Amino acid sequence: MAASVATKAPPTRSSSRFDPLFRPLPLLLLAGLLRIGLLLYGLHQDSRSAVKYTDIDYHVFTDAARFVSLGQSPYARETYRYTPLLAWLLLPTAWGGVVWFSFGKALFAAGDVVAGWGLLRVLCGYYGLGEVPAGKVVAAVWLWNPMVAVVSTRGSSEGLLGAMVVGLVWAVLGGRVAIAGALLGLCVHWKIYPVVYAVAVVWWMGGAEAKRILRGPTGAIAGKGDKEEGGGKSVMGLVLGFVTKERLIFGLSALGTFSALNIWMYSLYGPPFLAHTYTYHLSRLDHRHNFSPYHTLLYLVSGAPPHPHSQSTPWTALPFLPQILLSTLLLPLAFSKHDLPTTLFAQTFAFVTFNKVCTSQYFMWYLVLLPFYLPRSAFCRNKQLGLAALAMWVLAQAAWLACAYRLEFEGVQVFFPGLWAAGIAFFAVNCWVLGVVVGDLGEGGRGEMREEGRRIADGEMR
């Protein structure tokens, strides 16, 4: 049924001799082999080179796991700012030896592959794409993308979160409301940013597509018709109409899972759990160089001496305003009823673009959702536009990375104008890409309204 409500897939192109590689089993096997190869290469580079393959954050994770294995708090490790669940998962890394130390990297890489498998399930089941076309999209964006594979095999946990987010999309589009709520609660406990998806999913549940998925072909709960959603024109009627069974189940499941995990962790680790996992990120003033357009400002503020009027300008809070406005309110309320998966991608892209801290790992947050949007996007319909966007995105990153290399490894002061200008250029490219995505979403919504108008007109004529 889900496939019938999704946008029809574009016509399949002529087959090639490489098409069998994009079927699920060989696609996933090759993705696994790519990550195994990178894990082995990482061991070689770590043992031979002064520039280590393993990410510094992975040492933070494994140190926290070692503290847990000794019966202590993971927050005994300075700079550990994550849920204790992550340290628990990495307990085998404290058993000693190179192989066990790499356990976490293998786990994160496996999360990548599971996320790719979930992407295939949604693209084939909900969007109606064939196995080969879906495989090509997932291979290009996620499973065979060297950037994604390198990030996870260096020791970033984003692959696990990506699998959770894809699972959330699969559950929502499959009408599994309670499971979707539980996955959202787990995602928000793991990282704060997926909380922006709550507004999109709840708002989507009031759309025509959601009614077909959740309530069957009639779009209404048996015996209640359409009154439950409308509920009358009074304020109370609108409120009662908004509070549907599906929204209640989703909300209670999400809140219950999130609260249960937090109460459990707080009972074990007390206030340090809340301080390091949540409140730290609200007041974070990261002075290390990163892609964020706010970096130079925050770097200068972090190094400035105390000033009697310094509290009058909350520099750490100001970046949240455009970020929250776009990702939590404007995008989901405007577009989620028309195309939920693409809206989730746009929300995440906006969240990362406007975040006050932005590193390469954060790109994984939206790349895992890109396959839901890309096949029907303007970037695929217009190949020149797509190539131009990719080239500008890569070149802007390369310019920033060149400045960062000179700063990090050569000790050259390139904060201004080099690093600052490269960061602004990358931000501008991302804003332009986001504009194209929003334009596609708006065109999709207008097309849906035109189609609905034609259906109503046809029904009146009959």
Give your account of this protein's structure.
With 462 residues, the chain is mainly alpha-helical. It is built from 24 helices and no strands. The protein has helices spanning 2-5, 24-48, 56-69, 84-89, 98-101, 103-125, 131-143, 146-153, 158-173, 177-190, 196-204, 208-215, 227-230, 235-242, 245-269, 271-282, 295-303, 320-335, 340-353, 360-367, 370-373, 378-381, 383-409, 415-461. The protein is globular and about 65 Å long. It starts with a helix and ends with a helix. 38% of the residues are buried.
List the helices and strands and how they pair.
Blueprint: H1 2-5, H2 24-48, H3 56-69, H4 84-89, H5 98-101, H6 103-125, H7 131-143, H8 146-153, H9 158-173, H10 177-190, H11 196-204, H12 208-215, H13 227-230, H14 235-242, H15 245-269, H16 271-282, H17 295-303, H18 320-335, H19 340-353, H20 360-367, H21 370-373, H22 378-381, H23 383-409, H24 415-461
- Number of contiguous helices: 24
Shape: globular
Could you tell me the mean pLDDT? 83
How large is the share of residues in beta strands? under 5%
Q: Estimate the helix proportion, in percent.
A: 55-70%
Please compute the radius of gyration using only Cα atoms: 23 Å
Largest sheet descriptor:
none
Q: Based on DSSP secondary structure assignment, what is the total number of beta strands?
A: 0
Give the terminus-to-terminus CA distance: 26 Å
The assigned structural class equals: mainly alpha
H/E element sequence: HHHHHHHHHHHHHHHHHHHHHHHH
Key phrases:
462 residues, disordered N terminus, mainly alpha, globular
Short description:
This protein is mainly α. It has helices spanning 2-5, 24-48, 56-69, 84-89, 98-101, 103-125, 131-143, 146-153, 158-173, 177-190, 196-204, 208-215, 227-230, 235-242, 245-269, 271-282, 295-303, 320-335, 340-353, 360-367, 370-373, 378-381, 383-409, 415-461. Helix 6 (103-125) runs antiparallel to helix 7, helix 6 (103-125) runs parallel beside helix 9 (158-173) and helix 10 packs parallel to helix 15.
